[in-house]
Amino acid sequence: MNKDYIFSIICPTLNEENYIGRIIDNFISYCPAPSELLIADAGSTDATRQIVNEYSTKYPNIVLIDNPKKYVSYGFNKAFAESKGKYIGLLGAHTYYPKSYYQSALQALETEDCDVVGGPLLQVGKGSMGKAIAYCMSTKMGVGNTAFRTSKKKQYVDSVAFAIYKRTVFEKVGLLDTELVRNQDDELHYRINANGFKILMIPEMQCEYQVRDSIPKLFRQYYEYGVYKPLVLKKVKSGIKLRHLVPALFVSYLISLPIAIFYPIWLLPGLLYLLMALFFSFNNQNPIAIKINCFAVYPVLHFSYGAGFLLGLSKII
Fold it and tell me: Measuring CA to CA, which of 46, 66, 81, 215 is 20 to 30 A from 243?
């Protein structure tokens, strides 16, 4: 193995012609040399592969890797087997990375008491609905105490998006779990925590993440998160947090609402939820259209995740 590479950056792709050039240009311009960029492509039918191949002819450290099984976990694991870097990054193509991303990661990994490093997410959306979704996903009312979504300060965290890892972490805890279609990085991070490694979030690595721009897309995203979360928690029980269970309790409560015919007081939790949703939707500086959309987004976040969680739970019991 060539130990001279600093970073091996792995980026799974599928039809990312509008974004992959930006990822590669950022890597070329700002990633400390010598490093490598491994594009694990799941069979793109647009110009993604052509774009990567054009770069590869000029930069031999940019490599296209086939991912015939399509899922992120397979692509990452296959790319990892071919990687040569001291530090391993897992990037998403739809995300914007700051100029300081790689250098800040390198400094933290070499000088701080940490094994994994990443930044908070600056969640952005298109149109009034996309902006409402971005806002709700940045609040504790929307996503609970998920630090990399709701906080910007430097701190140790349970999980972080688009992280860079010491290679020794994977040698100890293993690679991504191919049984998981969603939440692969969450499950990996729970294993990392369980083995005593430290994940550090630093503001200099803040990434700009493009959220979904419609209710149906958001519902599907969080429903799938919910479906796979029970399997993740079954694999690594130490990862269980109250925030993972609350949406499922919320859906269970909604299912039980007919009880209110006989016990009207059973409506009280629902009324309190509506008041909280109203407060968090309108107690901000957003334009009125975004505030109104927020009142729809919060229940969708909670119901979709909770419904998916209950389905996922039924599959592992």
Answer: 215
- Looking at residue 41, its pLDDT comes to 93
Beta-strand pair 87-90/121-124: unpaired
Q: CA–CA separation, 44 vs 133, rounded Å? A: 28
2 pLDDT above the threshold of 60: no
Six-digit token pair at 96? 């914007």
User: Domain residues of the chain, as ranges?
Assistant: 1-93, 237-316
Superfamily of domain 1-93: Spore Coat Polysaccharide Biosynthesis Protein SpsA; Chain A (3.90.550.10)
- Strands of the 62-66 sheet, one edge to the other: 62-66, 36-41, 7-13, 87-90, 164-166, 116-118, 199-201, 155-156
pTM, two decimal places: 0.85
For the segment 239-274, what is each residue's pLDDT rounded down to a tens digit?
677 778 899 999 999 999 999 999 999 999 999 999
